[in-house]
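Subject: sequence -> structure tokens, single chain

Hey, anyone have a minute? Need the predicted structure for the following. Not urgent.
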Amino acid sequence: LLAIEAIESSSSEQILELAKELNLQEIIKNRIVLWRMRSTNPMRRAHTRRILTLKEAKALSAIGCRLASRLAVPIRQLMQAQQQLSEKQIPPEYNFRMSEYLDRFRAHFRSRMNPRRAKVSIYQDDDKLNELAVSLLSKLLFCTGTLGTQRLWMSLFDGEVK
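Reply:
Had a minute. Here:
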């Protein structure tokens, strides 16, 4: 969701609209419930000790994939720009869209994630955060295709379920 927010600034409102469209308003009733769900991530600054339920996780996955599908063109453009920049060994600052995406992503990440967490502390460097932002773009692109929601859901447990 951070990568989606870095691409589309109005994604919070879109999440709530999609919850209604997908008949998930029982799970995501309002902005506060959405914030509480997102705060179950232990790497966030405003972390709550509540565990995300299976229904909530599936709802967020479905919404994330639907948003990614809506943003398929900008995601592909960003991935293409990244590929061209890396082939020519040009820094991302030379491409306006990529530079803007990375700036937004870094700002969102740093404002929302707890830097005292070990998994977050490795992203203190801009280059590491840029790598994360680009890898999340490729995962979003993975979600835009046929059965994207199912593929995302399965990838969340890849190697985790025995």
